[in-house]
């Protein structure tokens, strides 16, 4: 299992790219994978192939309309770990002894 944070930004498509982000979030949402949308990217939890196939679908959904796309991908793999999307934050909160804002 892994956590993967990614952002996909079309370049040359104007100042606001929310319509492209929405297109990708729709793909992620329909994938059935656990995810969180943040202001700076999307975090997905799942098996390697499932996560990267979902990211590829996002790319495929944008590439015909966008001549240039900047993609940032950050991966945290941990063998046998499930539920990290929630548990990593909870672990920090336990050490702080309080809740923190979540993205």
Automatic annotation (TrEMBL):
Residues 5-93 form the Thiamine-binding protein domain. Pfam families: Thiamine_BP. One of its GO terms (cellular component) is cytosol. It comes from the Bacteria. SUPFAM superfamilies: MTH1187/YkoF-like. Belongs to the UPF0045 family. NCBIfam families: MTH1187 family thiamine-binding protein. This is Uncharacterized protein, MTH1187 family. It comes from Candidatus Kryptonium thompsonii. The lineage of its organism: Bacteria, Pseudomonadati, Candidatus Kryptoniota, Candidatus Kryptonium.
């Amino acid at each position: 299992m892994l956590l993967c944070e990614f952002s996909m930004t079309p370049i040359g498509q104007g100042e606001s790219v929310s319509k492209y982000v929405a297109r990708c979030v729709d793909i992620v949402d329909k994938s059935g994978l656990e995810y969180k949308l943040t202001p700076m990217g999307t975090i997905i939890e799942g098996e390697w192939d499932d996560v990267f196939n979902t990211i590829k679908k996002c790319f495929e959904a944008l590439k015909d309309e966008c001549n240039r796309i900047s993609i940032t991908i950050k991966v945290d793999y941990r063998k046998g770990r499930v539920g990290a999307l929630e548990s990593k934050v909870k672990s920090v909160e336990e050490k702080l002894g309080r809740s923190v804002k979540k993205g």
